[in-house]
Design a protein that fits this description.
Helices cover 55% and strands 10% of the residues.
Length: 326
């Protein structure tokens, strides 16, 4: 790897990205920067499959446990943090390894951010829900504080435009009334990104997802969610797969009565199945996203092949790509 190389390991959830990134970091003298939107939250460990200290194997990990789950986190905030981490790692002579499955985070680093981003469905839904629950004046007051110029030009009654203005701010961090030029991508900043996509057999991947969900429950996912339920979780934190399903089931269990009742076991079995299904759908969306992205070098990881073998294959692949580029 060259001094300015930045290695990305991307792909769907449960594909082995975290373990592979650690193995690569050991071999390449690297440090890992998370590209996962849920790992930023403190206390959300089991449900996000956050690497434990043992799993990190002494490799520094950046982007974990940045904020409490009561706060929101935007792609703009992530890009600022990740760029600072990348520059710091390179300055210390190490290789930054970006590992994760949040496609928008990866794109924000590789291509930069548009001053007027496209629609973000999840943020827009939350703003629409807030308008229903708190009323449009509450959203308008919020916009007035963030961007008075834009708020006054829209007026207090145009819900669609108020929501769009807030959406632009939450996604990009830019005031809608003062759009900046597109932020630069890593190549524009002098770095040489290498993006490796991990490809697994779909049925094998789905099996690993099912096993992971079962393991999460054994490790104490319900206990983790009970603790989190005491707080007012942010809208972005609640997007974590598994948390909403457990919260909903806890509400039903409380209504049923004693947790020792027979129906409760059935409720938790049903919750597990919903989480497995939702996670499989999530993996499929991640796969679709990354298949559309340009410049990804896909690596097939057959079942039964160990992490070390895939690591060594990727290193040879990177060397070939860099030699061809010279």
């Amino acid at each position: 790897m060259t001094k300015s190389s930045v290695l990305f390991i991307v792909g769907p959830t449960a594909s082995g990205k975290s373990a592979l990134a650690v193995a690569l970091a050991k071999k390449l003298k690297g440090e890992i920067v998370s590209a996962d939107s849920m790992l930023v939250y403190k206390g959300m460990d089991i449900g996000t499959a956050k690497p434990t200290k043992k799993e990190r194997r002494g490799i520094p990990h950046h982007g974990l446990d940045l904020i409490p789950p009561t706060k929101g986190f935007s792609v703009f905030a992530y890009r600022q943090f990740a760029l600072k981490a990348i520059k710091d790692i390179v300055r210390r002579g190490k290789v930054p390894i970006l590992a994760g499955g949040t496609g928008f985070y990866v794109r924000a680093l590789l291509e930069g951010l548009s001053p007027l981003p496209g629609a973000n469905a999840s943020i827009r839904r939350e703003l629409e829900r807030e308008a229903l629950e708190r009323g449009l004046p509450a959203l308008y007051t919020r916009l007035l504080k963030l961007d008075p110029e834009r708020a006054k030009s829209i007026g207090p009654r145009n819900q669609r435009r108020i929501i769009r203005a807030l959406e632009i701010y939450l996604v990009s961090g830019n005031k809608p009334s003062q759009p900046e030029s597109r932020t630069p991508g890593l190549e524009d900043l002098g770095f040489k990104p290498v993006v490796i996509g991990i490809h697994r057999d779909r049925e094998v991947l789905y099996g690993k997802i099912n096993e992971r969900v079962e393991a999460m429950f054994r490790k104490g996912l319900v206990r983790e969610v009970k603790h989190l339920a005491k707080k007012k979780l942010s809208k972005t934190a609640l997007q974590g797969v598994g948390y909403k399903e457990v919260l909903d089931t806890l509400c039903v269990v409380r209504q049923c009565g004693s947790p020792l009742k027979q129906c409760d076991g059935e409720l938790w079995d049903a919750a597990k199945e919903r989480i497995k299904k939702t996670t499989r759908h999530f993996a499929k969306r991640q796969w679709t996203w990354f298949k559309r992205e340009r410049g990804i070098c896909w690596v097939w990881w057959p079942e039964g092949v160990g992490v070390a073998s895939v690591r060594d294959f990727i290193i040879r692949k990177i060397q070939g790509l860099q030699n061809a580029a010279r």
